[in-house]
Amino acid sequence: MAEQDRDVDVVVIGMGPGGEYAADTLAGAGLTVAGVEDRLVGGECPYWGCVPSKMMIRAGNLLAEGRRIGGMAGAARVEPDWAPVARRIRSEATDTWDDAVAADRFTGKGGILFRGHGRITAPGEVTVTLAAGGQQVLRARRGIVINAGTEPAVPPIPGLAGTPFWTNREAIETEQVPGSLVVLGGGAIGVELGQVFARFGSRVTVAEGASRLLPLEEPEAGELLAAVFAREGIEVQAGQQVTGVTAGSRSPWPVAPNWPARRCWSPPAAGPTWPAWGSVRSASTPPCARYRWMRSCGPRPGCGRSATSPARARSPTCRCTRHGW
Ligand SMILES: Cc1cc2nc3c(=O)[nH]c(=O)nc-3n(C[C@H](O)[C@H](O)[C@H](O)COP(=O)(O)OP(=O)(O)OC[C@H]3O[C@@H](n4cnc5c(N)ncnc54)[C@H](O)[C@@H]3O)c2cc1C
Q1: For residue 54, which of 220, 217, 168 has the smallest C-alpha distance?
Q2: Three-state secondary-structure class, residue 238
Q3: Pick from 87-101, 152-166, 274-288: least confident
């Protein structure tokens, strides 16, 4: 059923940090402002982005610091526990993903909030498909602000759609730390979330198609982070495109090149439901072959530079050409 049309000065579509700021400021200046929001007033940042992720990082940093006490400041036993992190995200950051406070802040300034999906249907006209049912037509005398923000991008990798996976939203909402985790994408969000889960005990592999982590930042940043990740036991697969995801097969590893099995498999045999990664296939150089080779001679300094040919390294009987074992 269509509601009565409303005339306002400005319609803001999308009440994330950008839209909320614009809407609050315009309403505070005395204009009649309609805010249209499909999900939560405040957008990604307070509920699935900046704020809860920084709480997670703070907790992870505490663990990392605690682990450095030995030999520097005494002795400490560090036992990670995700429960307080999840609790703080629920109660202190997101109000259990309830935006009442933000919505009241806007309406308290005289703004009119419409919950639902907005579309521009004519010049100066926005039609809202209301979450509660029905449609609302809004006519904007002064203008329409489009602040639709972003959605988590799910890459078109064969097999991914049929595999339970997380985006940043599930990662932020989780009540449990997965036993292992493959993070697709070594940009800022991938590395920060990956490191947090690793510090809480997850075996993490970060896959990045570009040649290094943080490809949008200065090369030094990615290199430094790779060194930190190596120290913290986080595996990095850079310079390789992930070409397939297979859900739920522990072994054998069906397609080569392939990552080492111990890293590709995620879910514990009997555990909570969380992203059930199976094997993750990647293109370009076969890293597991390289590892196999390095496993046989890795401890010897300089071995990495004397690698056998990829074909030889791929063979289960490959040997270090320098040391012959
Ligand atoms: C894990 C993570 C960590 C981050 N950490 C930081 C950080 O530390 N610092 C930082 O600065 N940034 C960080 N960001 C980025 C930050 O969250 C975004 O830059 C910010 O949320 C963008 O704000 P926005 O208003 O443009 O869009 P969004 O926050 O995406 O909000 C857009 C809103 O529009 C709504 N919407 C879209 N289309 C419609 C429609 N047709 N009708 C009605 N409503 C609609 C959506 O429901 C959404 O609520 C992080 C992001 C993530 C995911």
Answers
A1: 168
A2: strand
A3: 274-288
**Closest residue by Cα to residue 187 from 168, 164, 162:** 168
- Residue 182 CA to residue 208 CA, distance in Å, equals 11
Is the CB of 14 within 6 Å of ligand 1?
A: yes
Q: Mind listing the pLDDT tens digit for each residue in 304-325?
A: 333 333 333 333 333 333 333 3
Q: What is the residue with the minimal CA distance to atom 52 of ligand 1?
A: 49
What is the set of domains in the chain, with CATH numbers? 6-42+99-146 (3.50.50.60)
Dist. CA 289 → ligand 1 center (Å)? 41
Q: In percent, how much of the chain has pLDDT > 70?
A: 75
- The structure's pTM equals 0.80
Q: Rounded distance, CA 236 to CA 205, Å?
A: 6
Using CB atoms within 10 A of its CB, is residue 120 exposed (0-12), middle (13-18) or buried (19+)? middle
Ligand 1 atom with least separation from CA of 152: 53
* Cβ within 8 Å of residue 120, ≥6 positions away: 13, 126, 144, 146
Q: Model confidence over 189-232: pLDDT tens digits? A: 999 999 999 999 999 999 999 999 999 999 999 999 999 999 99
Q: From ligand 1's centre to the CA of 17, what distance in Å?
A: 7
